[in-house]
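Researcher: Structure for this, please.
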Amino acid sequence: MIEWQITTPQLSTLIDLAENASGGAQERAAAVLATQPPLHEISVFYWNAFIELNSERPIGMSGSGLIPLTAIRAYAQDYDLDRQEYETFKRIIGAVDNRRQRLIDDKREKEAAKNKKAS
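Model: Predicted structure, C-alpha cell format:
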C-alpha cells in the first residue's frame, strides 16, 4: 500500500478528479485509483493509524523525518493497547515508516540522477 501511494503520481489530484470531475477525466482517475491494492481487514487499524501519525513527523532541512516514538506511544495509549499489542503496533508502524522513507529516498535519488543527466 505504501509503495502504491508513494509511486502513484499526483495522488491527491487523482482523488479530487475521481470525486469531482466528469467524463473522461473522472473515468481515467477512477481507473488509476482502482489499481490501489486492497487492505486486509486486520490491517485497516494499522494503516489508519499510520496515516494519522503522519502529521507527527518532524520537518527538517532534508524533509520530513520518521514518526516519533512518543507519538506512536501516545496513539497506542489513546486506543488502550496492552503491552503486547503496543509492541506489535510499534513494530508495524515503524516498518511501514521505514519503508516509506526508503521509497522517498530512492525517488529523490532517481530524480537527482535524471536532473543531472539533463544538465
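Researcher: Any notable elements?
Model: The helical segments are 2-7, 11-20, 23-33, 43-53, 69-78, 83-118. The longest helix spans residues 83-118.
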